[in-house]
């Protein structure tokens, strides 16, 4: 009971101390009041401080890459560490009764008020008594809290030790670190923290000032002192070591988070554009999905599209189905329904039964095949398409590849590979026109899988038996066909359309367009995809229509041909694009006697382009006098995913036309709908694209983030829910879910229904009367500084600035590139051949002004390229993604360019400022603490890459040479050329091995050498030097270290011989191996004038070698033993020697082999100095290790024949060559006046490696030099590789 009361009093006393300390911390009372009244800040207040993009900046006077509290915490940590070092261990004291009062001065902090010391003491004593009385009343609750705190003591102490907890225990421990309090209560469990109780007494955010060091030692307390715990409770010094460590841990200041040691300033120093506070915001209510008219049920609608073909093919066999036009625009062939049925039946039977065997057919139902048909042969395509449907094979229509480098051809190959396509259907004429190899085989297109080509002409098809009938069932969810789509980034995806969706879409089009049997339609579109396929190939069969297909090639020669077809055949419907309307207007003068009165629908399929309204109005004003009715113009909006999104129904004669929206382009850039009332130049007039398709439902969702429903005056992405859309991207599950399985949500994030929608990729809104308006596409969206711009709008602005004199056929491409964490607009146009440079720059300047005035956005780059130089789509348009790729690669080759970064890059980095407390050293420390390695690069692990027999069995090059001499004795490793380019000597594996053995035998007999002696090899470049390297290694009983030295020059002994002498002396060579000529030179009079010839070590002549084999090959005990010495002399005359062990030699040779892909059938050309460094390794060692053939070109031979190196590369068709900077400089400067001679030579694609890392400018100049003079053929490519060893 006594112990419990002492413990209780100790806790009460501790609480009183805390209350007193909170009341009298030695700071301003106003600050105390403010601290006590603090409440947690609301989320809205803390949000700006937590966001790095909205962090307040102090006017640029201080760089906020580093937060201000880092320096404060660093100072506190230093002070705390200083106090810990100076704190002495407390002295032991006696325990006294708990009720013996200690002096007030010994237990309270000093008072900072103006009162006297006695008054302050009495005041503090009174406060202490009051706190004690209040605490005694709440003793039971204190005990309960203490028990709860002790149960979680270990975790709490662990948390505090890592600096994550913000309790006041650690703070109070710092406060009482130098305070001596006389208290004699039983010490509680010091591992239990009372952060829960202390937090109620004082906020955790109160900071103790560094100056608040409490000194409460009583004058009469002599040497008695106590140790304070983390809770401020004094305890005796007779405590365990663990408790002492715990106390020190609790006193330690809070460690800053790891991320504060290292601040990634790449985004901090870039000025992030802040949103305009005056920007318009949507104000309408949340929209509700709009439903289309119900899809009617017609009694004679077939259960499947194949059933409709069977019906018309057997009952109306002579009715025309499709008419094809020739190049002049005249009908060349008409396909009847009977012919279509019979030929499709033959093709289906052939695909299933005649391509393979009965047990192993090539095609099975459900397989995918490619349809490769030209745009001027719709008849054969239609037969192939329906033949695949009857065979239950999934057709994938693609464009005809013209070359191996077609724009987007590799992405088409990726689609074919992902679909598992191995068979392609085409015509005989198309097959003959495909590019072929010299053997007559079709070339392997880049990125394409290997395909088997099947000709679908009738003479190659087998007639089906009478008892064979295709399986025509009710349309279900199985795939019918795959239509390819190119995304904004250039990737190609396959939109899979099910059979039920194909049928439902035909039914919806039949109801919306009010098709009836026997009508004639004119199709100017691509019949393999989009609306040209849906109307001209599918819906016409369902309704027994007659389609006249006008190919794109006819439109080039006769733009008015489709108008003539409408006039001649009294067509009811025409499918066109805005370009066809424009071209027809331009060619209208050629023929005036045409009538368009029969047209009830002129379907403009690119009505989604907001600028199509001008073409429609101009065409109507011109051809209204020819019978064209205003209500016949019917724009529509389509997409590969949602298929037909909306279409304007044909109006009644005399009925008022739908209204148009005149929108502010500034408002559109912020994603809101505002009627333009200010400047009409910045207004966008858009026409509606009609109502939602029958049986469909439409909503508008935000294009970014979650699919939240937009407000009624907000621009968003159009989403459609219907049975008529695509079902998935083939093989792309993740992208499919984000596009075809969209569930819209409201502003609260709750789903709106459970019906999935399909994203159409179109931007627009639903106007009055449920009319759909489209203002752009997702693929053409350019988001610059938070504002959205449409690429089509900028193209229209560029075309409006008198582009006829400058731009070739209106070909302009607009895209965006990322620069400094934001998108920048790039405009690329094709320049007319007759346009002058002055006119071009004048046009570019006016375009920049127009875009800035109308769109309020700057252009980063405006480039003009030569005519017909931009990559094209199959129908002649500009391939945007490929053009962007060329721009990023720097391969556009513009003839005029205007860069304007100052008008659009407004978030340039802020100037760096010197920090008072945290500098670059702290950033480097932060990198190290964060585990980041500074300025280090690592290659592949050699130990795990190559694990063949050669590496496992042979750890020494001599073993490798011996193995090659036995396995491939006649394989040529080295080929040495002279100045004329003719081989002067070759070295096979066996020859090199035998010569090395003979030289090693001479060393053993005449050299009288000891193990570990160094041998100098003084030879000109050649086979003898190669053999000597391995002879030194193969010497019996001992291991000799070779030192290759450049021989002295006979005409300049005074300058070259001292270098040889220096290497001999430094290496302490015991022997010199050389030729007879060089031996006489070393002992000549001329040499005696330079060096003392009598001090040469033993010189052995190796010209005449005895035919004596080595008794045994010495094998060192470990690969770490020394192999050779590598001496090199710098340009300043400094001699450097490197010791190379055999394991290092193996690793170096293996690295070069893997990096340069060296193997036995490869040839490389080496034009390097063979006496040190990389040149020595490539000349003497790599060929033995890798087995490739090295063509050796001594650099000194180039002095007499500058063509030697390049002609060798050309003659032997070398892919990789190694050279030095001096060789490149010699060829660049020496061959400058001999370009005409070099033009007749052909260089294969070449990779050249240089060993000099400081001559990058010379390397790049050499790389551009041949290309600028057209030395390389069209298939050649020069690639610069720099390896630094």
UniProtKB/TrEMBL annotation:
Residues 15-99 form the DMAP1-binding domain. One of its GO terms (cellular component) is cytoplasm. InterPro entries: AMP-bd_C_sf, AMP-dep_synth/lig_dom, ANL_N_sf, Dip2-like_dom, DMAP1-bd. Residues 39-51, 150-161, 191-201 have a biased composition (Low complexity). Transmembrane segments: none annotated. Residues 32-68, 80-123, 147-171, 186-233 are annotated as: Disordered. Pfam families: AMP-binding, DMAP_binding. Belongs to the DIP2 family. This is Disco interacting B. The lineage of its organism: Eukaryota, Metazoa, Chordata, Craniata, Vertebrata. The gene is DIP2B.
């Amino acid at each position: 009971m006594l112990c419990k009361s002492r413990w209780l009093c100790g806790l009460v006393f501790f609480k009183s101390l805390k209350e007193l300390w909170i009341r009298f911390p030695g700071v301003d009372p106003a600050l105390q009041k403010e601290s006590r009244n603090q409440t947690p800040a609301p989320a809205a207040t803390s949000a700006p401080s937590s966001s790095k993009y909205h962090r307040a900046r102090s006017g640029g006077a201080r760089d906020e890459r580093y937060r201000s509290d880092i320096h404060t915490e660093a100072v506190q940590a230093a002070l705390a560490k200083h106090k810990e070092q100076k704190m002495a261990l407390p002295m032991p004291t006696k325990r006294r009764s708990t009720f013996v009062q200690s002096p007030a001065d010994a237990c309270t902090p000093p008072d900072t008020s103006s009162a006297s010391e006695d008054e302050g003491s009495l005041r503090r004593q009174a406060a202490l008594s009051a706190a004690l009385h209040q605490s005694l009343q709440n003793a039971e609750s204190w005990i309960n809290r203490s028990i709860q705190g002790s149960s979680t003591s270990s975790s709490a102490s662990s948390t505090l030790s890592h600096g994550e907890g913000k309790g006041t225990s650690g703070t109070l421990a710092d406060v009482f670190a130098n305070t001596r309090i006389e208290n004699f209560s039983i010490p509680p469990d010091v591992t239990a923290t009372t952060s829960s109780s202390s937090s109620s007494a004082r906020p955790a955010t109160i900071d103790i000032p560094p100056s608040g060091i409490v000194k409460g030692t009583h004058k009469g307390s002599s040497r008695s002192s106590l140790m304070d715990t983390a809770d401020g409770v004094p305890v005796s010094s007779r405590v365990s070591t663990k408790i002492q460590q715990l106390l020190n841990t609790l006193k330690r200041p809070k460690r800053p988070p790891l991320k504060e040691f290292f601040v990634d300033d790449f985004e901090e120093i870039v000025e992030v554009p802040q949103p305009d506070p005056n920007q318009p915001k949507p104000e309408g209510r949340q929209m509700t999905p709009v439903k289309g008219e119900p899809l009617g049920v017609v009694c004679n609608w077939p259960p499947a599209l194949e059933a409709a073909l069977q019906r018309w093919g057997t009952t109306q066999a002579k009715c025309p189905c499709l008419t094809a036009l020739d190049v002049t625009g005249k009908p060349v062939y008409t396909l009847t329904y009977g012919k279509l049925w019979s030929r499709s039946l033959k093709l289906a039977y052939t695909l299933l039964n005649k391509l393979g065997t009965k047990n192993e057919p090539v095609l099975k139902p459900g397989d995918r095949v490619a349809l490769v048909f030209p745009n001027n042969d719709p008849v054969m395509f239609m037969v192939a398409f329906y033949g695949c449907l009857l065979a239950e094979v999934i057709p994938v229509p693609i464009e005809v590849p013209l070359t191996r480098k077609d724009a987007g051809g590799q992405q088409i190959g990726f689609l074919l590979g992902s679909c598992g396509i191995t068979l392609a259907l085409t015509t005989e004429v198309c097959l003959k026109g495909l590019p072929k190899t010299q053997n007559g085989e079709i070339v392997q297109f880049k990125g394409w899988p290997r395909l088997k080509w099947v000709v679908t002409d009738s003479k190659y098809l087998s007639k089906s038996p009478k008892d064979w009938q295709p399986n025509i069932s009710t349309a279900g969810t199985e795939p019918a066909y795959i239509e390819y789509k190119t995304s904004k980034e250039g990737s190609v995806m396959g939109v899979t359309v099910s059979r039920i969706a194909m049928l439902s879409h035909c039914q919806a089009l039949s109801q919306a367009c009010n098709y009836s049997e026997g009508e004639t339609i004119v199709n100017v579109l691509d019949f393999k995809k989009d609306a040209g396929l849906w109307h001209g190939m599918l819906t016409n069969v369902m309704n027994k229509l007659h389609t006249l297909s006008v190919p794109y090639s006819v439109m080039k020669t006769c733009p008015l041909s489709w108008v003539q077809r409408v006039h001649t055949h009294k067509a009811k419907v025409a499918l066109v694009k805005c370009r066809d309307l424009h071209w027809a207007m331009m060619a209208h003068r050629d023929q005036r006697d045409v009538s368009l009165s029969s047209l009830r629908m002129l379907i403009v399929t690119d009505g989604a382009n907001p600028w199509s309204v001008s073409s429609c109005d101009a065409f109507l004003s011109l051809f209204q006098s020819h019978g064209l009715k205003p209500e016949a113009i019917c724009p529509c909006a389509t997409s590969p995913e949602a298929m037909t999104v909306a279409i304007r129904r044909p109006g009644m004669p005399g009925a008022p036309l739908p209204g148009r929206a005149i929108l502010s382009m500034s408002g559109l850039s912020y994603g809101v709908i505002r009627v333009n009332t200010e400047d009409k130049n910045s207004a966008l007039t858009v026409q509606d694209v009609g109502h939602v398709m029958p049986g469909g439902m439409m909503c508008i969702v935000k294009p970014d983030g979650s699919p939240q429903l937009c407000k009624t005056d907000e621009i968003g992405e159009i989403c459609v829910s219907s049975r008529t859309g695509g079902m998935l991207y083939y093989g792309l599950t993740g992208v499919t879910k984000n596009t075809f399985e969209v569930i819209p949500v409201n502003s609260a994030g709750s789903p709106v229904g459970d019906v999935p929608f399909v994203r159409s990729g179109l931007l627009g809104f639903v106007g009055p009367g449920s009319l759909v308006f489209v203002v752009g596409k997702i693929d053409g969206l350019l988001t610059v500084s938070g504002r959205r711009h449409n690429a089509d709008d900028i193209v229209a602005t560029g075309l409006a600035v008198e582009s006829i004199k400058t731009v070739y056929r209106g070909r302009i491409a607009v895209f965006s590139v990322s620069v400094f964490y934001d998108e920048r607009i790039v405009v690329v146009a094709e320049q007319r051949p007759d346009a002058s440079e002055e006119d071009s720059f004048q046009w570019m300047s006016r375009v920049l002004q127009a875009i800035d005035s109308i769109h309020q956005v700057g252009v980063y780059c405006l480039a003009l390229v030569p005519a017909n130089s931009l990559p094209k789509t199959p129908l002649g348009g500009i391939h945007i993604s490929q053009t962007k790729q060329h721009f990023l690669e720097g391969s556009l080759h513009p003839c005029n360019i205007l860069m304007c970064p100052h008008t659009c890059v407004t978030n340039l980095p802020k100037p760096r400022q010197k920090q008072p407390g945290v500098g670059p050293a702290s950033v480097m420390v932060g990198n190290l603490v964060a585990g980041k390695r500074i300025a280090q690069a690592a290659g592949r692990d050699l130990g795990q890459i190559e694990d063949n027999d050669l590496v496992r069995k042979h750890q020494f090059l001599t073993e490798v040479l011996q193995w090659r001499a036995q396995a491939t004795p006649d394989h040529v490793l080295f080929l040495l050329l002279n100045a004329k380019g003719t081989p002067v000597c070759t070295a096979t594996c066996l020859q090199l091995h035998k010569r090395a053995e003979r030289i090693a035998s001479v060393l053993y007999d005449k050299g009288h050498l000891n193990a570990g002696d160094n041998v100098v090899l003084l030879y000109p470049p050649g086979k003898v030097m190669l053999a000597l390297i391995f002879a030194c290694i193969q010497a019996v009983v001992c291991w000799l270290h070779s030192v290759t030295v450049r021989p002295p020059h006979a005409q300049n002994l005074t300058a070259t011989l001292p270098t040889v002498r220096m290497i001999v002396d430094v290496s302490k060579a015991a022997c010199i191996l050389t030729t007879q000529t060089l031996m006489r030179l070393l002992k000549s009079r001329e040499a005696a004038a330079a060096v003392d010839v009598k001090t040469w070590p033993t010189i052995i002549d190796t010209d005449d070698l005895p035919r004596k084999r080595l008794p045994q090959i010495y094998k060192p005990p470990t690969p770490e033993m020394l192999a050779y010495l590598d001496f090199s002399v710098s340009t300043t005359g400094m001699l450097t020697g490197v010791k190379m062990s055999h394991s290092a030699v193996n690793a170096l040779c293996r690295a070069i082999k893997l990096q340069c892909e060296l193997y036995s059938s490869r040839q490389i050309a080496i034009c390097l100095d063979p006496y040190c460094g990389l040149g020595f390794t490539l000349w003497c060692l790599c060929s033995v290790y890798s087995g490739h053939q090295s063509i050796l070109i001594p650099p000194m031979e180039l002095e007499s024949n500058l063509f030697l190196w390049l002609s060798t590369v050309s003659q032997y068709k070398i892919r990789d060559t190694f050279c030095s900077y001096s060789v490149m400089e010699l060829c660049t400067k020496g061959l400058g006046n001999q370009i005409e001679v070099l033009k007749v030579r052909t260089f294969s694609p070449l990779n050249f490696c240089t060993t000099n890392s400081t001559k990058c400018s010379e390397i790049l100049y050499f790389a551009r030099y041949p290309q600028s003079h057209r030395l390389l053929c069209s298939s050649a490519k020069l690639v610069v590789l720099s390896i630094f060893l």
